[in-house]
Amino acid sequence: MKYLISALVLCLCAGCATRKAIVKSEAYTVPGTTLSRRAASEVRAPETVKAYPVGRYTDPDYPDEMHERHTLYRRETSPDWNYLPDAPYDVPLGPTVARSNPSPSYYVKTDTELMNAQQKAYAEALLEQNRAMKKRIDTMQQEAAKVPELQKQIDGLKQQLKSLPSPEPTPKAKPEPTSEPVEGFSSVEPPLPEWEEGISDPCEIVLFADSDDQSQAFLISQMRLNDEFTAELAAAERRRVAAVFNTPFLRRKELALLTK
Length: 260
Description:
- The protein is of the alpha+beta class.
- The protein is 48% helix and 14% strand.
- The strands form four sheets. It has a two-stranded antiparallel sheet with strand order 1-6. It has a two-stranded antiparallel ribbon with strand order 2-5. It has a two-stranded antiparallel ribbon with strand order 3-4.
- Strand 3 and strand 4 (62-67) form a beta hairpin.
- The N and C termini lie far apart (163 Å).
């Protein structure tokens, strides 16, 4: 019974105990310090980009295309933490000294020289053009100075022309009639042969055709004759050459016939 009463007293005492206040710790934010560019290079190495001047070239995959001279920028190294912060050092290269960090100043100088050369050539062209224009202007001014003198000469010639007496018109001579008969186009001397009595000229059918059908028929017939004559002439030439080359030896007469 004593133990039970003791347990009840302890429970009552525990329920009446005061709780301790919980103190919360506040977190203070500290502003970060921005590193300068010089200090940042000692902590982290930036990427290295090099410039390569490339002249005119042709792509092997596209041989029909040519690329003009330009600058090729290539990233050599990616940014990383700088574990060995060393300053750029000088590399002796004979009479010159190069920096360890690359610099494309030579390519800029090349561009400047090219631009200067182009401007110089353009200026020389303008100078030559100006000289030609000046010479042309001087010539035109000299010609313009001669205009009043020429005008005076023209006025003097007009006065002389007015002072001359006007010529009398001469009567036109009339042609005297002749007793000789005039030959026409139909009379032909000497007389034509019997086989040419129908047509005096092969072109008469074309010049004096009764209709267009006759003209076309004559043209077609002449074209056919021309083709036949051409084929016959080519065949004759082939036969002549074959007859000459089929002989064992070429004689003088045959050689002369071939080269005639």
